[in-house]
């Protein structure tokens, strides 16, 4: 039976549907920094799927116990003996009852041990009770850490072994893992690698953004988009969600967590006897034990040496300041920047370098050339790079048709604008359609297969129409421009250099 649940709204306003049956076979990984909306996403998933599948939630903060009031989940407190946890987990599978294992109030090591024992007991259930169960683990980096922490090795092995069984071998036993983590870098790789569905939320550290982009099959130049995601917004990918990265916004929930995010509220009006309230001691204070302040520990020698080795700020120079570079017309300044950009593109490997790396190279070259004025921002540099990679000549760049093409290119993301403009300039100039190798080069990859997918994406967006002539050569038409490319061989060679303007 195929059941699709509504997770919210996808890009374009369409409903974001998650296939529960497919999820049970392929598992799900949710990632996002604190405050990105992970718990809200999990609650939406649990509420929507509660009528269709048995659920087990490993809840380190006790946030999901409120599901019991509306959906009948049994709350299992983690402060129990090993034998009690094993017995409860076994009966949970036998009677197909949804539950919340609340670990609130336990130390981290106790939480890891209780969760490991409970999950292992569910994993070891008799074959007769291998019914499908959605196992949701919040703060999964706590139970499957990538490196050993301050907990005992025995507790770490129990917890990590249970999480590995859940994600690697749980499918045949009916256990479908849904794990949520604040940082992918802190989650054991063998646990994260078993998920085939992903919902990636807001994150800021470069290592987490790069790993999220790798898991989604995205180019690393697109990783910075994870910084800009709003709370409750995620990028979805996987057989149960979407075949290509899809931005989604999670819908509202029916229940709420016991703990909420802090909200600003005005201070109460100060009473007139506020000094008496503060300075008059409570009679019970004299009966409480006095806690002596412990003398601070001496600073470690390594900290002192590290502080001494830091660079000192240079004293202000007594030499007169160098006069600022004279201002030049904007057209001349832009021409200098174009020359610097042309030098960078002349390097054969420039097409396959990250935009951030090219941007740093561009800024250094501008300083060497003493290009006056404020430096370009990274978005402005990417835009200029996209136009340069298209190979448009000066004559075409001055036409109204090309100005329309530039406006149309803003409908796609920054990393795709170079590809769009490459094909658009061929249509405007009446040139043959670029080959897959040329399109892949404009995108910064060697994959011709990805180039064909990019054309398919543009066609889905209604920007182009791809068709063939009688000889089977590819033609790309631009309805909004009223022009199309000449027939071109999709498997042809890389002719990028021939598209470069003669001035370069």
UniProtKB/TrEMBL annotation:
It comes from Mycoplana dimorpha. InterPro entries: AAA+_ATPase, ATPase_Atu1862_pred, HerA-like, HerA_central, P-loop_NTPase. It comes from the Bacteria. This is AAA+ ATPase domain-containing protein. Residues 24-213 form the AAA+ ATPase domain. The lineage of its organism: Bacteria, Pseudomonadati, Pseudomonadota, Alphaproteobacteria, Hyphomicrobiales.
């Amino acid at each position: 039976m195929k059941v699709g649940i509504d997770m919210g709204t996808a890009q374009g306003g369409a409903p974001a549907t998650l296939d529960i049956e497919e999820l049970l076979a392929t598992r799900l990984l949710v990632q996002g920094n604190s405050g990105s909306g992970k718990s809200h996403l999990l609650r939406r998933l649990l509420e929507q799927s509660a009528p269709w599948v048995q659920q087990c939630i490993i809840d380190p903060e006790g946030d999901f116990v409120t599901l019991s009031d509306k959906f009948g989940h049994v709350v299992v407190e983690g402060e129990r003996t090993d034998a009690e946890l094993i017995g409860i987990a076994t009966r949970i599978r036998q009677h197909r009852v949804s539950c919340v294992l609340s670990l609130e109030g336990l130390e981290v090591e106790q939480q890891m041990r209780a969760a490991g024992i409970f999950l292992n007991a569910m994993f070891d259930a008799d074959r007769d009770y291998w019914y499908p169960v959605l196992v949701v683990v919040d703060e999964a980096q706590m139970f499957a850490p990538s490196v050993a922490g301050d907990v005992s090795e025995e507790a770490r092995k129990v917890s990590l072994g249970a999480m590995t069984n859940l994600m690697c071998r749980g499918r045949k036993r009916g256990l479908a893992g849904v794990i949520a983590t604040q940082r992918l870098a802190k989650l054991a790789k063998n646990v994260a690698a078993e998920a085939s569905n992903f919902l990636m939320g807001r994150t800021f550290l470069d290592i987490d953004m790069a790993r999220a982009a790798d898991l989604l099959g995205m180019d690393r130049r697109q990783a910075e988009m994870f910084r800009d995601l709003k709370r409750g917004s995620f990028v979805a990918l996987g057989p149960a969600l979407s075949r290509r990265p899809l931005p989604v916004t999670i819908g509202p929930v029916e229940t709420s967590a016991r703990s909420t995010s802090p909200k600003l509220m005005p201070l109460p009006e100060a009473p007139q006897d506020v000094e008496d309230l503060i300075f008059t001691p409570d009679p019970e204070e004299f009966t409480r034990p006095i806690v002596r302040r412990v003398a601070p520990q001496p600073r470690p020698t390594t900290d002192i040496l590290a502080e001494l080795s830091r660079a000192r700020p240079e004293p202000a120079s007594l030499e007169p300041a160098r006069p600022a570079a004279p201002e030049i017309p904007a057209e001349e300044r832009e021409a200098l920047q174009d020359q610097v950009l042309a030098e960078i593109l002349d390097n054969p490997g420039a097409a396959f370098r990250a935009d951030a790396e090219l941007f740093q190279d561009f800024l250094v070259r501008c300083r060497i050339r003493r290009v006056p004025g404020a430096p370009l921002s990274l978005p402005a540099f990417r835009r200029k790079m996209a136009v340069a990679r298209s190979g448009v000549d000066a004559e075409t760049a001055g036409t109204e048709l090309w100005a329309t093409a530039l406006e149309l290119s803003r409908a796609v993301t920054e990393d795709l604008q170079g590809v769009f403009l490459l094909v658009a300039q061929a249509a405007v100039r009446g040139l043959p359609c670029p080959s897959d190798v040329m399109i892949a080069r404009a995108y910064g990859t060697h994959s011709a297969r990805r180039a064909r997918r990019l054309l398919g994406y543009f066609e889905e967006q209604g920007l182009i129409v791809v068709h063939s002539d009688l000889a089977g050569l590819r033609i790309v038409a631009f309805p909004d421009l009223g022009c199309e490319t000449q027939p071109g061989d999709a498997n042809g060679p890389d002719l990028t250099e021939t598209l470069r303007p003669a001035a370069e």
